[in-house]
């Protein structure tokens, strides 16, 4: 890691969960803490990049020097990312985006009417933000380097390799279990076209710095300055 290794790069990161409204006071979300994404934003900034962090609802402080764009739903996040991706040179998707959202969200609070009847929820699929960005002209022409994450409970290498191909990204990073949501440390499995390597258990702060160095190496910017 060196403080100039991402100088001149514009890094776009998604972090945290998304929140999908059912009505004005209820919704569906998940337990992503946002810690890994925020740590990567801090590390990328410390490596000299200009960093934009599109963050779902989390209570973490914005890392110094990082531009934060707060979003709520997957569709909010997708819109912010599509706009920002036009200028970015690196996209790192750490957000735990809700796979589905309620098909419709009620304008007013859904009332309990005393009859014992329960509301039925129908779902529709959310846009896949990472796959969308990876399929963009900027990414396909090599102007935007895309990195995805995967949280799997078993067969991490196989699932991570498959996900890398399915999402169409050059680098896919697997969270090595047990479940890392909310934890301050993690271990990572990096899968790219050359193969795979493990970053052993360490604090998310330390892993973020190692990951930034790995990305800089793949961009060819690690030893440029
Ligand atoms: O498909 P899955 O959720 O397992 O893939 C995880 C990766 O894809 C993460 O990098 C996550 O941020 C990204 N993702 C996304 N938009 C979605 C679902 C996942 O960007 N709707």
UniProtKB/TrEMBL annotation:
User: Under the cellular component aspect of Gene Ontology, which terms does the record hold?
Assistant: phosphopantothenoylcysteine decarboxylase complex
| Source domain of life | Bacteria
| Cofactor dependence | FMN; Mg(2+)
Pathway given in the UniProt record: Cofactor biosynthesis; coenzyme A biosynthesis; CoA from (R)-pantothenate: step 2/5; Cofactor biosynthesis; coenzyme A biosynthesis; CoA from (R)-pantothenate: step 3/5
Q: GO terms for molecular function, please?
A: FMN binding; metal ion binding; phosphopantothenate--cysteine ligase activity; phosphopantothenoylcysteine decarboxylase activity
Phosphopantothenate--cysteine ligase: where is this region?
A: 11-225
Binding positions (CTP)? 99, 109, 127-130, 149, 163, 167
What is the UniProt remark on how the cofactor binds and its stoichiometry? Binds 1 FMN per subunit.
Q: Which keywords does this Swiss-Prot/TrEMBL entry list?
A: Decarboxylase, Flavoprotein, FMN, Ligase, Lyase, Magnesium, Metal-binding, Multifunctional enzyme
Q: Quick check: keyword Flavoprotein in the entry?
A: yes
Q: What positions does the domain DNA/pantothenate metabolism flavoprotein C-terminal occupy?
A: 6-217
This enzyme catalyses:
(R)-4'-phosphopantothenate + L-cysteine + CTP = N-[(R)-4-phosphopantothenoyl]-L-cysteine + CMP + diphosphate + H(+); N-[(R)-4-phosphopantothenoyl]-L-cysteine + H(+) = (R)-4'-phosphopantetheine + CO2
Which terms under GO biological process does the entry name?
coenzyme A biosynthetic process; pantothenate catabolic process
Reported EC number(s) for this entry are 4.1.1.36, 6.3.2.5
Family membership noted in the UniProt record: In the C-terminal section; belongs to the PPC synthetase family.
As for what it does, the entry says: Catalyzes two steps in the biosynthesis of coenzyme A. In the first step cysteine is conjugated to 4'-phosphopantothenate to form 4-phosphopantothenoylcysteine, in the latter compound is decarboxylated to form 4'-phosphopantotheine.
What this protein is called in its record is: Coenzyme A biosynthesis bifunctional protein CoaBC
Natural source organism: Melaminivora suipulveris
Name the encoding gene, please: coaBC
